[in-house]
């Protein structure tokens, strides 16, 4: 069967090859990052109740590393949301319930979320020393939890198979930490595309968990700083506005 391309970015291409999906990284992509993604995903695969496409192998050919995974048939939840706006409330409920299931798990061998965010904030040349200090101080004061956090939880990373079962993709950013940080990041990702959907998501999450919205909002400057390390010009203005450290009312 010929290779069918699924997606492509500056650093990787994803394509289907028969019954498997192959993520092929560009030449020169760090080996450590490829192996870390495979390791993190393998650890999450061991958890019960969460559907994760199985990692089948890691290879290198002509200087390009690849990760081969089980191919899951079906559209992304993002596609379904766009094609069926009348079902948005149903889809958003399923989306939040799936995230809550993830947060109910523990995966103690994963990196700590706080440690990762400290590294990201310290890597930012765009912010002043005073802002860096405020961000790190705020991060240090956040409660220390050990819940499983996906790190990039958004509808494009969920495949819905023909039976309605939802599979969660792209666990490379998974850590153990405070679930509200993970929620703040999802809110940020929605906000970059659609502020109305972002507010719908956050309202629903807070309602289902009896979480004060203000508690999640306290994470926004921190997750915005972490997102800024991706250096995407189209996101700069919004992220810089959120990095302005202040107490949300």
Notable characteristics:
249 residues; 9 strands; alpha+beta; 45% helix
Write up what this structure looks like:
The protein is α+β, with helices and mostly antiparallel strands. 45% of the residues lie in helices and 17% in strands. The protein has helices at 31-45, 77-83, 88-103, 113-122, 129-141, 179-191, 195-209, 213-217, 220-228, 236-243, and strands at 4-8, 12-17, 20-25, 55-61, 64-70, 147-149, 158-160, 166-168, 175-177. The strands form three sheets. It has a five-stranded antiparallel beta sheet, with helices on one face. A hairpin with a 5-residue loop joins β7 (158-160) and β8. α6 crosses α9 (220-228) and α9 runs antiparallel to α10. The model has no long low-confidence stretch (mean pLDDT 94).
Task: Give the SSE layout.
Elements: E1 4-8, E2 12-17, E3 20-25, H1 31-45, E4 55-61, E5 64-70, H2 77-83, H3 88-103, H4 113-122, H5 129-141, E6 147-149, E7 158-160, E8 166-168, E9 175-177, H6 179-191, H7 195-209, H8 213-217, H9 220-228, H10 236-243
Antiparallel strand pairs: 1-2, 2-3, 3-5, 4-5, 6-9, 7-8
Helix pairs in contact: 4-5, 6-7, 6-9, 9-10
Strand content: 15-25%
Q: pLDDT under 50 segments (min length 5)?
A: none
Largest sheet: 5 strands, antiparallel
Reading side by side through the largest sheet, how are the strands ordered? 1-2-3-5-4
What would you report as the Rg, rounded to the nearest angstrom?
Answer: 18 Å
How confident is the prediction overall: mean pLDDT?
94
């Amino acid at each position: 069967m010929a290779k069918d391309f699924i997606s492509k970015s500056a650093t990787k291409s994803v394509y289907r090859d028969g019954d498997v999906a192959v993520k092929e990284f560009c030449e020169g992509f760090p080996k450590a990052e490829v192996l870390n993604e495979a390791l993190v995903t393998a650890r999450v695969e061991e958890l019960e109740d969460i559907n994760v496409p199985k990692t089948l192998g890691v290879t290198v050919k002509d200087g390009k590393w690849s990760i081969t995974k089980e191919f899951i048939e079906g559209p992304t939840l993002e596609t379904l949301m766009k094609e069926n706006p009348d079902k948005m409330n149903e889809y958003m409920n399923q989306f939040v319930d799936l995230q809550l299931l993830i947060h109910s798990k523990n995966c103690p061998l994963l990196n700590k979320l706080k440690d990762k965010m400290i590294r990201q904030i310290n890597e930012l040349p765009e912010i002043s020393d005073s802002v860096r200090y405020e961000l790190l101080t705020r991060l240090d004061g956040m409660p220390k939890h050990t819940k499983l956090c996906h790190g990039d939880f958004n509808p494009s990373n969920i495949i819905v198979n023909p039976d309605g079962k939802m599979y969660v993709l792209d666990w490379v950013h998974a850590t153990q930490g405070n679930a509200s940080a993970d929620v703040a990041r999802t809110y940020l990702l929605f906000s970059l595309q659609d502020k109305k959907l972002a507010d719908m998501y956050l309202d629903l999450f807070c309602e289902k968990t009896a979480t004060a919205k203000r508690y999640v909002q306290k994470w926004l400057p921190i997750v915005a700083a972490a997102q800024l390390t991706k250096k995407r010009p189209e996101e700069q203005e919004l992220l810089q506005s959120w990095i302005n450290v202040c107490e949300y009312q």
